[in-house]
Amino acid sequence: MIATPMLRIYLLRHARAVWAEPGTRDFDRALDARGREDARALGLEMAAKDLRPDRVICSSAKRCRETWDLLAEALPVSDVTFTETLYVEGQAGYLDIIQDLEDTGSVMLVGHNPMIEDTTAALLERDGGTIGAELRRGFPTCGLAIIDLTNAASGMSARKATLHAFLKPVEA
User: Fold this and answer.
1) What is the domain count for the chain?
2) On the CB side of 90, how many CA atoms lie within 13 Å of its CA?
3) CATH number of the domain to which 152 belongs
4) Does residue 1 form part of some domain?
5) CA distances from 94 to 70, 112, 134, 150, 170 (A)
6) For the chain, is the Cβ count within 10 Å smaller at the N or the C terminus?
7) Residue 172: inside a domain
8) How many CB atoms are closer than 10 A to CB 69?
9) 23-44 pLDDT, tens per residue?
10) Is the model's pLDDT at 156 over the cut of 80?
């Protein structure tokens, strides 16, 4: 029997950011100290568990770029794309990006809520599965859902999604 190729999707919500100051665009919000600490810790945890994406697609919003930069200290990835799409699109836009990916390997999307949470739920619930109690409590900043999609020749709608892991920052 031939092994079914698989696509691993890492869905990362950016780390905690400062509140927007008057006159500052939401797009330009930076990480706060806790967010920087959480992002570095997640990068180290992922490296220790050998959870390394082949490719990263990151929102071009400042807090997402900073989150990825801090993870990249422990997880160097050469194929990184920054796009405003993950800032302006809803869940459908996130799913369109996933739909257009190659059938094997792994990719990390670094984006925003509620799109990260909604995309995770859509992928996992499509097959009648559950997202689990952990995810039903919400998707924290710097939370990471790792989802495996089995390949199906008939496209995205025929893929079976399973939650490989859900990582979140340690509560302070």
Assistant:
1) 1
2) 2
3) 3.40.50.1240
4) no
5) 23, 10, 22, 18, 27
6) N
7) no
8) 15
9) 889 999 999 999 999 999 999 9
10) no
